Amino acid sequence: MLRFFVSIFLAWLLYKLVFDLIIPGYRVTKQVRRQMSDMQDHMRQQYERQNGGQPGTQPPPPQPKKADKGDYIDFEEIK
């Protein structure tokens, strides 16, 4: 009789493990992966819209500002 109750208890534990931990964990993982994929697609589309539909091209680097010649003092070597 005790063996029967232990078997029932172990079956119940296995049931709880599968249906309360493993299956919900699988569903959450699947949902998170789908949301990450959707977010990446959204960001890629937004990037392509901003860059005129040319994915992978880098915007031109900003031109360095030239120093104002009026503030420049020539260096003179003193001997």
Can you give a write-up of this model?
This protein has 79 residues and is mostly helical. It is 62% helix and 0% strand. It is built from 1 helix and no strands. The longest helix has 49 residues, at 2-50. It is elongated.
Helix and strand topology:
Elements: H1 2-50
Oligomer: single chain
Principal-axes geometry comes out as elongated
N-to-C span: 109 Å
What structural class do the secondary elements suggest?
mainly alpha
For the sheet with most strands, the description reads: none
Question: What ranges have pLDDT less than 50 throughout 5 or more consecutive residues?
Answer: none
Q: List how many beta strands DSSP finds.
A: 0
Mean pLDDT: 85
Provide a concise account of the structure shown:
The protein is mostly helical and 79 residues long. Helices cover 62% and strands 0% of the residues. It has one helix at 2-50.
Task: Give short descriptive properties of this protein.
79 residues, 62% helix
